[in-house]
């Protein structure tokens, strides 16, 4: 992404020194990836400002948070996880689900950094592989710290 300073310098040289702040902000939020679609920090469901998508996104994120942070974990020997072990599992499950959502909906153009994501079959393959790789990393981390 082009820096704000660079945009201001280019605009001043072209327009004789003055540029409206609204234009600068619009240029800063544009990315050359994805046909110059504005890239924002808003999560999926809130980017288009469509009311039904905002409601659906809010309900979805609420349910995701509620499910992940209220789940009970049972160890292999049948005992329930408590304390730090329980919270590490809850946080790991939440991060895994959240990362999957952000990847699938291409949050801030994350897919352009993933190999094969520019082909339809590569995107489909990576949509299946990436969540499992992330889950594998979470399991490895949990085994190290638990």
Separation of termini? 40 Å
**Class of secondary structure makeup:** mainly alpha
What is the subunit organization of this protein?
single chain
Question: What's the overall average pLDDT, rounded?
Answer: 77
Largest sheet data? none
Strand content: under 5%
Shape: extended
Element-by-element helix/strand order: HHHHH
Poorly predicted spans: 1-5
Percentage of residues in helical conformation: 55-70%
The count of β-strands is 0
Counted by DSSP, the helix tally is 5
Account of the protein in words:
The protein has 146 residues and is mostly helical. It has 2 domains: 1-30, no CATH class; 43-145, no CATH class. 60% of the residues lie in helices and 0% in strands. α3 runs antiparallel to α4 (83-104) and α4 runs antiparallel to α5. The longest helix has 26 residues, at 120-145. It is extended. Residues 1-5 have low confidence and may be disordered.
What attributes does this structure have?
146 residues, mainly alpha, disordered N terminus
Provide a concise account of the structure shown.
The chain has 146 residues and is an all-alpha fold.
Layout of helices and strands:
Blueprint: H1 4-15, H2 21-28, H3 51-70, H4 83-104, H5 120-145
Helix pairs in contact: 3-4, 4-5
């Amino acid at each position: 992404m082009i820096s704000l300073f660079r945009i201001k310098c280019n605009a001043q040289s072209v327009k004789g020194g003055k540029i409206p702040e609204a234009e600068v902000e619009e240029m800063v939020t544009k990315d050359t990836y994805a046909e110059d679609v504005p890239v924002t920090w808003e999560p999926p469901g809130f980017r288009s400002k469509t009311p039904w998508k905002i409601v659906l996104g809010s309900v979805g994120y609420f349910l995701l948070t509620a499910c992940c942070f209220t789940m009970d974990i049972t160890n292999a020997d049948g005992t329930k996880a408590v304390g730090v072990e329980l919270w590490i599992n809850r946080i790991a499950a939440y991060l895994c689900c959240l990362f999957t959502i952000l990847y699938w909906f291409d949050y801030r153009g994350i897919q352009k950094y993933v190999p094969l994501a520019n082909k339809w079959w590569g995107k489909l393959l990576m949509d299946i592989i990436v969540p499992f790789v992330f889950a594998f990393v979470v399991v490895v981390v949990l085994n190290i710290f638990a």
